[in-house]
Amino acid sequence: MKQCLFFETGKPVTPIMDQLHRKNASPRGQTRHRLKAVLKAGIVCGLAGVMQMAAGSAAQACSVALVLAMDSSASVDAREHQLQINGLADAFLDPDVVNAIEVVGGIYVTAFEWSGRYQQVEQLSWRFINDGATASAASNTLRQAGRGYTEFPTALGYALGHAAVLMKRAPAHCRRKVIDVAGDGINNDGFGPDSAYKAFDFNGVTVNGLVIAGPDSVPVDYYFTEVIRGPGAFVEVAGTYDDYAEAMKRKLIREIIGNGLASAD
Fold it and tell me: Origin, by domain of life (predicted)?
């Protein structure tokens, strides 16, 4: 805690207390007046300390820290990218998602899009969402996010590494840590998920996947075998990009509430 200041002089409380303890430092009346002031300052400092402790307890009580990673590689065209953005933004307006957030007391969220090895673009900086108003604000920010890149391949290992770094920067210690990776293909540039899990700190982190399946099952199988990781990890499947919004809604509810309390339907 920062040192409390004596509210009348702007000087630290401790030096003033030292002065009061000096014998014959000032006339009796002045000493009595200053002692009262110091006692008042002590009360102010004590209240400040209690408030800081309460704030720390609130941070410790955080239920979920969630990192959302959205695929913007070359396989994702403009329409598909917009469906992803709108789907995620709409999910934070959904009453069931907002209710889940309120039930757990709020969540910390950040989001970015990813494609090539060094093409990760922030869409939503870390923020605390705990009700409809804060969820709506996050939705608006996401909807206004432009696309950073269009021509790069699918560097999934690098995306996971970036997500791990973001998780380390979460502004609060949360009971659960979840990375949510959405994509429509397998890694085809740079190191893969296995190498990312060896190189970066994923201790206590669950990695889930949202796969846009398309005409074959290869991406789905890949996410099941190579991407998801940690306790309760799962893959949510959207048949096409048109199904993305509903899949994201289901996934967020499951991640926020926890596997034991949410339906996987």
Answer: Bacteria
